[in-house]
Amino acid sequence: MIEFGQAFAAAFHLIATFDAGLVEIVALSLEVSLSAVALAALVGLPLGAAVALYRFPGRIVIAALLNAFMGLPPVVVGLIVYLLLSRSGPLGVLGLLFTPGAMIIAQWLLVTPIVAALALQTVADLHVEYDEQLRSLGATPGRALWTLLWDGRLSLVTAVLAGFGRASAEVGAVMIVGGNINHATRVMTTAIALETSKGDLALALGLGLILVSLALAINFAAMAVRDLARVRHA
Amino acid sequence: MTVAILPLSLEAVTYEAQGQRLIDSLSLVFGAGPRSVILGPNGAGKSLLLRLCHGLLRPTSGRIAWACPGTGAEVRRHQAMAFQRPVLLRRSTLANVTYALALRGVARRHRRELALAALERAGLAELAQRPARVLSGGEQQRLALARAWVQEPQVLFLDEPTANLDPGATRRIEALVDGFHQNGTKIVMTTHDLGQARRLADEVLFLHRGKLVERAAAETFFDRPRSREAAAFLNGDLLW
Amino acid sequence: MVTRVLSLLLALTLLAGGLHARADDNAGRFITVASTTSTENSGLFAHLLPQFTAASGIAVRVVAVGTGQAIKLARNGDADLLFVHHKPSEEAFVADGHGVERFDVMYNDFVLVGPAGDPAGIRGLAETPAALARIAAAEAPFASRGDDSGTHKKELGLWQAAGVDAVAASGTWYRETGSGMGATLNTASAMDAYALTDRATWLKFANKGGLEILLEGDPRLFNQYGIILVSAENHPHVKTADGEAFIRWLTSPAGQAAIGTYRIEGAQAFFPNARKAGS
């Protein structure tokens, strides 16, 4: 129980002194997770919308896969990406292993199904509401896809937030493909794992507090945006 | 000069869903000119008929043919439809109209001006920047008609457009519909409101259980209905 | 409004990237070393590597995993150097043609830790196998790495010497955590169990709980560290020149002194023993 008090003290000390190590780790965590989420949104939003709107053979299977992959274990994804990016693997020439690039790729794989599956649901619901009017106005299915994505942006913010939560909280994937290298690929979650393995539980917990606070801050901000927008647009 | 899409002819059109025959071997021709109002009790198939004509649904059997050749999408360019509950995008009032203009390929620099003119016509110019979804029911329906206006339709379908509106809003909608009519657009409308039908109709088509039971000039229909069902309906006795 | 937020998010990502790039020593020469969690957790690298970088201008990136995984990484060519502490595995690595040559670097020792109450009665014994036999007989809880690491292999060798098949008891008094040294010690601390650990990790470990060193000094507990350059034959991209520079420095008087001056709680943690040039 002493740990919790020490944890708060550790966290406070790190923040108050603007600890250089902490800044470095937080900056990298944000860079990796935000990039992964941005890329996941780029791919996942149109993908989910397309599966919602277009009829093609195997559609049900793709939808089921997207839903299932929301629960992909991060350590498994990390392992698969390692095997791909290893120098002995097919993409070894890219030299991406143990770089932030590899971490972004791994997290992108984790987040895209979440964004796509939730976008699919949102767009499918909107489709029921808008389909006749959009066809009456002369919108092609391709045009309708982007129109519905934009119209559903409030719900999609939630989907993207869910993706960010997943990315910023996972440790299994970034540990394997990043290597938790000091000053190169150490992020908040891997730093916490390291401090835990050194038995420095108070520091680990302190870092955890900072991580959770960051996630909370981002979520609150996004919710505020969403609620403001909702009031405007009903 | 665009090719005229009217007259529209339906030949033995049938529509079935879930084992039920909802439109039963219906044949008719819509010509340019008179405002056609479709009446009938609940479940008669009025809304379905509109959707079949507009190409939103495909008939189970029979033929729906416009005067000019082309795919459903191509012909639909010259038509517009307003629904009982207006479907508006989560954007500003103005943006809802410019969206329709964008779909028609109007150059970006012209859209704003044309949209504002349409809003002006519908008495919505001051609400141009307001999010469309916070407008009142009457304002939303007027917006739907402003949007239809910029589509320059040869045929305007309306499915019970004022069913949810108060008398004042209803009158404003009817005035806008009349504006389309004066401009040469063919009006095809369904309604539950007999008073509205009397005000607007040039001719009446009476549907019952998916069949076209009677079709006559408005005066004739209201004063001397030929069919038993129509008479009962006008009396308030035919519920479905 | 949403567009404004999206642009803000984009700016945030770029800012984070910029901050990261500033703090990063990416832009220079670097070598990748596959090493073990126990070495990392001891804090040796934080003390040692900056000295090498200052002398050579080469940054050292350490990927700290279990010995088994470190060897696998090196074999796959994902590291330039292998720096672990299990001589048989290291010699096999070179014999199989994956590594160029093995060099002794330093040693420390393992210690047997356990609850202060010492239910198995091993305190002060001189011979480790005898102590392990007593633990097995008493069925006292024992936390094992169980992860194919150097420490784990050492531990298994000692059980063998004691004539005990501990693995058969896995899940009862013998607990295989499948984790690094720190995680295993956390488990041992929480379970009041015995464990085999390298001294450096133990000195640095901050969650000892009720555990203390009960047995030490047995020559069997000698823990030798060796470094190997990954062979460029299978992996042409390996940084041979810079890797050789690191080995040279590590085995030089300067590097050896740097190792020897590393202290944990005032005690020397590692003892340099690289063979002098020409001997």
What report would you give on this structure?
The complex is a heterotrimer of chains A (234), B (240) and C (279). With 234 residues, chain A is an all-alpha fold. Chain A has one domain (20-233): MetI-like (MetI-like fold, Orthogonal Bundle), CATH 1.10.3720.10. Chain A has ten helices and no strands. The longest helix of chain A is centred in the middle third of the chain and has 38 residues, at 100-137. Chain B has 240 residues and is an alpha/beta fold. Chain B has a single domain (8-235), classed as P-loop containing nucleotide triphosphate hydrolases (Rossmann fold), CATH 3.40.50. Chain B has helices at 46-54, 72-76, 93-103, 108-121, 137-149, 167-182, 194-200, 218-223, 228-235, and strands spanning 8-17, 20-30, 36-39, 61-65, 79-82, 155-159, 186-190, 203-208, 211-217. In chain B, the strands form two sheets. In chain B, strands 5-6-7-3-8-9 form a six-stranded mixed β-sheet, with helices on both faces. In chain B, strands 2-1-4 form a three-stranded antiparallel β-sheet, with helices on one face. In chain B, helix 3 packs across helix 4 (108-121), helix 3 packs parallel to helix 5 and helix 4 packs across helix 5. The longest helix of chain B has 16 residues, at 167-182. With 279 residues, chain C is α/β, with parallel strands linked by helices. Chain C is 43% helix and 24% strand. Chain C contains eleven helices and twelve strands. Chain C has helices at 2-23, 37-42, 44-56, 67-76, 87-95, 128-138, 150-162, 181-191, 199-204, 240-250, 253-260; strands at 29-36, 58-65, 81-84, 99-115, 142-144, 174-176, 194-198, 211-215, 222-230, 263-264, 267-268, 271-272. In chain C, the strands form two sheets. In chain C, strands 1, 2, 3, 4, 5, 6, 7, 8, 9 and 12 form a ten-stranded mixed β-sheet that branches. In chain C, strands 10-11 form a two-stranded antiparallel ribbon. In chain C, helix 7 links the parallel strand 5 (142-144) and strand 6. The radius of gyration of chain C is 21 Å and the shape is globular. The model of chain C has no long low-confidence stretch (mean pLDDT 89). The A-C interface holds A 20, 23-24, 27-28, 30-31, 34-35, 38, 86-89, 92, 95, 97-98, 100, 153, 157, 179-184, 194, 196-201, 222, 225, 228-229, 232 and C 1-2, 5, 9-10, 12-13, 16-17, 19-20, 23-26, 32, 37, 40-41, 45-46, 61-65, 75-78, 179-183, 185-186, 189, 204-208, 235, 237.
